[in-house]
Description:
- This protein is of the alpha+beta class.
- It has two domains: 3-262, PPM-type phosphatase domain (Phosphatase 2c, domain 1); 264-342.
- 44% of the residues lie in helices and 19% in strands.
- It has seven helices and eleven strands.
- Strands 2, 3, 4, 5, 8 and 9 form a six-stranded antiparallel beta sheet that branches. A five-stranded antiparallel beta sheet has the order 1-11-10-6-7.
- The chain is elongated, with a radius of gyration of 37 Å.
Amino acid sequence: MSFMTDSVSRIGGRELNEDSYGFFEMNNAACWVVADGLGGHRGGEAASRIAVDAALASFRVTPEFSTPALQRHLEAAQQAVLKAQKDQPTLSTMRTTIVVLLTDSLRVLWAHVGDSRLYCLENGRIVSCTKDHSVVQAMVSAGELSANQIRHHEDRNRLLRCLGNSENEFRPTILSEARTLYRGTAFLLCTDGFWEYVTEPEIEVDFAKGEGIRDWLALMEDRLLERVTENNDNYTAIAVKFDSQTAPMPPADPASSPQSGGEPNSARTARLAWIVAIGLLLIALEIPVLFLWNRHYLLERQVEDVTAERDSLSRDAQALEQSLHDVRNQRHDGKGKSAAAK
Length: 342
């Protein structure tokens, strides 16, 4: 196999580690699973272990690469949890999340239930990430929150889907189409106790800094340990890197790959041409507008100058009229005095 895999799973500040993980490779196929038992439901550690074991057991029986096969692995995990609930009444309320990665060394598929995540990196950049089945993710999708507000929101742990609920509530999200597996493609499967403390830009930075996936995990765990509180949640992560020398190279710009939701190069070129044309048009329109604005400004200044000169002349006329009035009064007073003297 051309996959390198490493993992970390810690109890954190809790009494039990309710996270579980596992992976299995055979021939050219492989499957990786991470699960997080829900702490508010008794038996979370059992639920996560049962789910991981059942999914991998299903893969061993049917190691084919297809969406139906991945669906069966998830259904096997769900049925195993439901059966354990019935067989052990003390575990009747246990629940767990799950995230699964499947490959045939040429393509990959993944699926999840809950808020355990999968990140896919090409050229060292995150090109895809699962969306949590949670209340806060629904608020982000509705435009009520930004994605950055998920990590520390008071309702972050309120899940909308998980394994262990009734059969009619079992609704996993499965990647709609298989994704091409490029040389150097990497994956991070992790529980919320891990991704809560490591942001997406930091995942990329640490991937670039690390000399391998073990270093990558260690750098991210260092960040986590600097930020956690005393009662932090369990945290688990699996890092996977595909390093086959015969695999195709990834696109130079991951955003240009139609699989990652970006545009083909031809579409981007056409869009850029339109942007340039619109920019030139705006510049062409701006020149006469600026000329007219300048003309208007000069006319306004001229009007202000004429108004100021008119006001000045009016004040001078008033002063002259007052002076003439004073002179008339003085002459009138002088004549009166002469008549009195006679």
